[in-house]
Amino acid sequence: MTSKNYPGTYPNHTICEKTITVPKGKRLILRLGDLDIESQTCASDYLLFTSSSDQYGPYCGSMAVPKELLLNTSEVTVRFESGSHISGRGFLLTYASSDHPDLITCLERANHYLKTEYSKFCPAGCRDIAGDISGNVVHGYRDTSLLCKAAIHAGVIADEVGGQIGVLLRRGMSRYEGILANGVLSRHGSLSDKRFLFTSNGCSRSLSLEPDRQIRASSSWEWINETGDQVRWSPGQARLQDQGPSWASGDRSKNHKREWLRIDLGEKKKITGIRTTGSTQSNFNFYVKSFVMNFRNNNSKWETYKGIVNNEEKVFQGNSNFRDPVRNNFIPPIVARYVRVIPQTWHQRIALKVELLGCQIAPSRTQGNDSLVWSKTSLNTVGSTNREDETILKPIPSEEMPKGLNVITIVTPLVLLVLLVAGVGIFVVLRKRKKKGNPYGSAKAQKTDCWKQIKYPFARHQSAEFTISYDNGKEMTQKLDLITSDMAGRYQVSVTMLLARRCCLWERGDQEEK
Question: What kind of architecture, by CATH, is found in domain 14-97?
Answer without folding.
Answer: Sandwich (2.60)
